[in-house]
Design goal:
Strand order of the largest sheet: 3-2-1-4
Distance between the termini: 53 Å
Low-confidence stretches: none
Largest sheet: 4 strands, mixed
Number of helices: 5
Strand content: 25-35%
Number of strands: 4
Radius of gyration: 18 Å
Structural class: alpha+beta
Shape: globular
């Protein structure tokens, strides 16, 4: 491995071994929730804005069960939201949460003709 590659590897190791700085939100402060899905997991990060930058407050992830891996992308996004709202109930009760995604999650949850699974989740 060349010197350039060795330096990049050392930088990468340093980055991976450094814990991210989590910030405590102020009471009533609005927060943002970013949703991410993959074939095997759903993840969210709750962030706060501080002096023009975003800082993580909390991370949540869930490995998908075999049946859940067959959900549509939109169903996985909503599963991520349901998982976050369950695990971060206190934050959802004490802060205004802005969900950030490029999919129409809000519109889907308000449709009366949605699938039974989505209808059940929207009630929770």
């Amino acid at each position: 491995m060349g010197e350039k590659h060795e330096g990049a590897m050392q930088d990468w190791k340093q980055y991976l071994s450094t814990a991210p700085l989590l910030m405590k939100p102020e009471d009533g402060e609005p927060l943002s929730l970013y949703l991410a899905v993959s074939g095997n997991a759903v993840s969210v990060v709750l962030v706060k804005d501080h002096e023009g930058q975003q800082y993580p407050v909390y991370y949540v992830s869930k490995s998908l069960l075999d049946a859940e891996t067959r959900y549509s992308h939109l169903e996985k996004l909503i599963l991520a939201l349901v998982t976050a709202s369950t695990k971060l109930r206190h934050s959802f009760e004490t802060h205004r949460i802005h969900v950030k995604t490029n999919h129409p999650v809000k519109n889907v949850l308000r449709k009366p003709e949605m699938s039974g699974r989505l209808a059940k989740w929207s009630v929770n």
